Structure to design on (180 residues):
């Protein structure tokens, strides 16, 4: 949920985690903010990032070809994703070098315990979190599908967009008077 992602970002800001956990949490949060698969996260290079001027602002865009689908994806970085990206050293070709899927998932299990999140979360949860948060914020399904690199909106709807209790309550409050 958005609250869990926000809590994890606050935990990151405390700088209270072991250095390896801190680095793994940054990678996980970057994936939450971009919808990247773990394989794509571990493959992106500094050459995949470009500047774009839009509406008087400069955006950093992540552009790459997905490993799994071979689809081209363009993702504008929100401030938190950009902040995480800028914290990684630029030495080396890959942004998230010296990582393995196994290590990231092992660290994430421990980080989730530290954060007192009660449900099981794996690295692949980041993609679902990204899609659900965007949907809860009113982002159209076809835009979420484009960010995730899906050719079919149905794939996005079926596997990634989960309806949170909070979004159900907000929708009902918006359209009906609260009665209890």
């Amino acid at each position: 949920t958005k609250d869990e992602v926000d809590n994890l970002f606050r935990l990151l800001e405390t700088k209270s985690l072991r250095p390896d956990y801190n680095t793994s949490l940054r990678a996980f949060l970057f994936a939450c903010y971009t919808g990247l698969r773990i394989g794509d996260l571990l493959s992106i290079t500094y050459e995949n990032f470009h500047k774009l001027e839009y509406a008087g602002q400069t955006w950093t865009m992540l552009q790459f070809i997905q490993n799994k689908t071979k689809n081209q994806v363009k993702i504008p970085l929100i401030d938190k994703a950009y902040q995480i990206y800028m914290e990684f050293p630029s030495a080396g070709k890959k942004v998230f070098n010296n990582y393995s899927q196994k290590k990231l998932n092992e660290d994430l299990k421990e980080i989730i315990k530290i954060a007192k999140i009660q449900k099981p979360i794996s690295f692949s949860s980041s993609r679902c979190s990204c899609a659900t948060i965007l949907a809860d914020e009113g982002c159209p399904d076809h835009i979420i599908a484009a960010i995730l690199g899906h050719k079919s909106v149905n794939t996005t709807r079926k596997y990634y967009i989960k309806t949170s209790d909070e979004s159900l309550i907000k929708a009902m409050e918006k359209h009906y008077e609260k009665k209890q």
Summary: The domain at 2-175 is CATH 1.10.443.10 (hpI Integrase; Chain A). Strands lie at 49-54, 57-65, 72-76. The CA atoms of residues 35 and 148 lie 6 Å apart.
